[in-house]
Amino acid sequence: MLSSVPRLAPANADALRDEFFELLARVKIPKFKLFRDIRDIVNDDDLSRRNLAVLRATESTPRDTQYYQQLLTFRNERTEKDISNRSTSTKLYIPGKIIHLCDVNGDGSFYIPYW
Q1: How far is 78 from 90, CA to CA, in rounded Å?
Q2: How far apart are CA 25 and CA 28, in angstroms?
Q3: Is the dihedral of CA 80, 83, 88, 94 positive or negative?
């Protein structure tokens, strides 16, 4: 059995987080209604209609809301931290096979690898 371990670089995780926060700013209905609504399965045509009903266009996102101001503050803080941490990097190693070591005797004297 081959196990796969998904990897997400820190920069990509940050970009995903930023896109999610931006998407939340575009929502034009109460969030609890949206989260209840997205659990329903819909086809592609209904999905497009639903997206038009609940999301504003990117260029018409209101910038004077408390949420958006908090988002800007958060982004500025992250930018400052990213600039100060630029010298450090996180290395991601290409995953190989995952080996599960099983202690056969229960005393740590003999292991059998499974992969």
Answers
A1: 17
A2: 8
A3: positive
